[in-house]
Design goal:
The protein has 2 domains: 117 residues, no CATH class; 116 residues, Homeodomain-like (Arc Repressor Mutant, subunit A), CATH 1.10.10.60. It contains 12 helices and no strands.
Amino acid sequence: MPGWQQFIDIYFVYSDIPRWLSLAIYLWLTQKLISKYKQGSVPHHNLQWVKRFSLGFMVFSLIWLLHLVPYLMPTLSDQLLSTMGWYPVYLPMIILIYWLGISGFLVSLRSYKNKAHGNVLPEQIIAQAKAKLTKAMVEDELYLNPRLKLEDVVSHCNLTQKTVSAVLNQHLNQSFNEYINAYRIEACKVSLLMGNRQLTITGIALECGFNSQATFQRAFKKATGLSPKQYLEQQGKSS
């Protein structure tokens, strides 16, 4: 049993050597990979974070080595552990983890801001896109097509999908379906108030571009706060 205990003690002492070597090899390979991406193939802020990651672990590996060398010397090992333990390694590791976490968060935040900034459209493009969208709805009445898709509007208006999406989401604060359904609902209101007896409410909804009664009811109540029947009753009282 004493022999086994002695083996375990020796193992715990010298097992740190391959651990440290594996970290050193990993850092060496990382530096080789980083050197391949200095031609702009990776965004600068991402590459900077990788460099900081590598640099942080290089500093840590140096601290670990400075603690490991006396730890491997029998004459110094016991005194070192009784005086400082492994705190000279643990504390830098904790600092490194927090530093890398905060650095990674700042990199992702910068990427998000850059992406948001890249989606800003010139005022002239926004005005032109709004005018084309309005013409497509008011004059060309694209909303009457129950199978209308974003791609159809993009093609009809001769705009890019990115531009149409940006104008709808960022400047009109509507999704594509909300934008189209708003015109359909206004058309339904006109037909309902005209008192067209040849069509039911569902028939009017289908005629105005809705593809189902359930979709029409849901969209109408969301826009007006009333069901179609309640809307008619309210308009009848006010007239």
